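Reader question, answered in our methods column.
A reader sent in the components of a multi-part assembly and asked whether the whole thing could be modeled at once rather than chain by chain. We filled in our standard form and ran it. Here is what they sent:
COMPLEX SIZE: three components
ENTRIES:
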Amino acid sequence: MTKLHSAAELENLRAGILSSRDPAQPCIAVCAGAGCRGADAGRVVGAIEEEIGKPGLADKVNVRATGCHGFCEKGPNVVISPGDICYFEVKPEDVPEILARTIKGEVIERLVYAHPDTGQKAVHLGEVPFYKHQTRLLIGDNPKIDPMRIEDYLALGGYAALSKVLFEMSPGQVLDEVKKANLRGRGGGGFPAGLKWETAKNAPGDDKYVIVNAHEGEPGAFMDRALFTGNPHKVLEGLIIGAYAIGSHRGFIYTRHDSPQLIKHVRNALAQAEEVGLLGENILGTGFDFRVELHFDVGIFVSGESSALMRSIEGNPPEPRPKYIRTSVAGIWDKPSNLNNVETWANVPQIISRGADWYTSIGTERSKGTKLISLSGNVVNSGVVEVPMGTPLRTIVYDIGGGAPGGKAPKAVHFGGPMGGSIPERFIDTPLDFDELAALGAPIGAGGLLVMDEETDMVDVARYFLEFLTNESCGKCVPCREGMRQMLKILTNITIGKGKSGDIGRLEDLSDVTGLACLCALGKTAADPLRSMLRYFRDEYETQIARGSEAGRSETR
Amino acid sequence: MSEALLQIDGKAVKATEGMTVLQAAQQAGISIPTLCHHEQLEPYGVCRICMVEVEVRGRKNYVVSCLYPVARDLVVRTRSEGVDKIRRVILEELLAHAPDSPALVALAQEYGADRDRFEKESSFCILCGLCVRYCAEVKQKNAVGFIEQGPRREISFIPEIASKECWDCQECFALCPTSYAQAAYFLTEALAFPGKRRAGSHSA
Amino acid sequence: MNVSDQAAEPAAARDRKVRTAVMGDDKMDKIIDKHRGKPGSLIHVLMEIQHENHWLPRDVLHKVAEALDVPFGRVLQIATLYKTFSLTPKGRHEVHVCTGISCHLRGAAKLLETVQHVTGIKPGETDAESRFSLETGSCLGSCSLGPEIIVNGTHHARMTPAKVEDVLKDYR
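And here is the structure of the entire assembly that came back:
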């Protein structure tokens, strides 16, 4: 593909791609995302590639290996367009029939969704209960894109927002739009992105950096990887727009080292964008230069913390710095650095294309837009969910999630992983909202929503998260290392029937001081899950402590 | 360097820009406890015992005074309910390791720390890093360093280097608040290079 | 749930994967030489060697320290700080039991117990015949498949303790 030097050339390219495609020709989209691949989607893709090589098929049907569709529990997932027909738990043996009958325009009944209780079938995506209640502005494009082909993203209107920004808006106007949209950080902070951008933009110095935090470390969170691996260009487009607004010419994408598929897709996307002139020197002929580097971590949770991440990009070990000076003023190599999460960047193109007014019509008063949720744990329909802010948790857990498996009643939901909190089921009508959930002690965090059923031991859950952080803490500062050591010891003793009177007082003291005195956010939030347990499930703790005998762990799966 | 006028415990304190709150306090004769701090070494900020309460633009925060920079109109409190609680619990956490360390015992008395609050730990190292940092920054030998992650973090005398450097130096032993450093050295020597310490003249 | 690719491999190919051997000195030196005099490349170099050699021998750590101009103590600190690095040789098959929170809620603890029993080792260890190395942790984000065991990158999804022996017996 030749380099584009104007908005018109971009639109011509897009028109050319669209005209070469026949929307009536059936297309089979197979999810090759992490969850489905683990369920053997690789062999389904292989079977399709083999089958389509047979004579007479290739010109009648298109095939596409895509990123995560969202309904991970029922993978391998296949979506047939036109019509958005969904097939679930597809096996390689089903492939010849799928191809043959798709070409005929027929639906294979045994592969469509059937409600586990009523047996009611749903053929089209919009009818499947899991998808029906979602608003899939971001993840909805995944089934339509082969992540290794920029043409697919262009066919959906990709990079039109960037073009608008570069040719019709000043950096200040872009910033104003993002501020007006009240886009709040999706990585866990919930901080207004526009304000962060503005701080970096106004900070002294010519060298400014923008960063995609693609280091998804929160256990139970997988939506960033699903989005970025499946649609790398959407995130990249947002990043370039942000760079333009801030005045940055150098960007960084930081991922985990153990995400080979993500790394491969991002590298390819960067190369393709550059080839076409949407990245690199003289983007779309405007004279705006912006280049992006890909970095990955050494394999530790703390690398997702923004100041640790920046140290790592510099070539140092990922150690957080005390935040006495904001990283948007002095970050990588002490230059103004604006870091945002994958999902935050992905929201930017639509804010530009459809406007802040449109964006703010979705959500609540102070939490706008949609939010990606990784729904997992004791839930029937696990996967990547996208709903408007303000959606009651009930909708997510019951209508979308199908409740807890085995007919058990959900007991609690947990947000924010090891740095978050659990709230009891009686709060299930709480809307998905940054501030409302934070007030309850279960801040949204990155969006990992864990459902816990009635058999879950809430002492064990707090113990679990502390054990996780114990293995991720650098060990440098006393309140984190020693605080967690002692809290873990007490909680472990409680779970094995060796609780002592005074344990709750000791736990409270430890969690108070850990929260105030630790060097970084890992330590400061380490006791938050425990704090939420003592707030809502204190009776379980008291009961287990009072139990003097060798009870063992109540989880007996 | 411009001057910064701040308030510590209600007292007006003159400091120079670039100083830390700890430096300003020490200069003004206001005492703040420390464990991992040493004038010859870069401030480390890990024991957290020097934490103080600061107020900036009406917002209160707890910060480590050994690292926090002075600023004009900064309001600092070196003692408060919150500060004292932090110090007490940190001391109790450390006393679980080294209940007889003179430095810890003295502070424990002042802050009402109970040496038996938490279950005892087997290592009496409090990981203040004085030995490691002294060897790196002052002696520039790096004969002792930190290894391992999180709760398993410990100091380690590196036999390849310690066998050549330590016997003639031993300067870190006196810095150690719990006497662990010298115990660690001798244990390493006994296990890794018994009878091979480089005795004799290493004098300048 | 999955048929392992490993079981179909010819014996010769499996033997080549014995991981107690140190990679050739020249290959090692090539990696180190690329970053000579660049202390900022320490983690990168260690990761590359770990990826190729599956463990970091002590003499290699000394080589890295000398070439990159980093104190040996610092290299040792980094090598022991991150669980990505191994200072002991690994077994032929790396068994990873996911103990992420979602897998934990779905029963990973009991699964791990069984894996420990069948392999005879605990997380972080390698057995005496260098057959298995066991690791836990690091949620890989395939939570819908939980609880799972990942052996040499192959996912064995929705595991139960009863299936463990069957799954592992094919990894020789």
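What stands out: The beta strands of chain C are 93-97, 132-136, 149-151, 154-156. Residues 11-81 of chain C form one domain.
Send us your own complexes using the same form.
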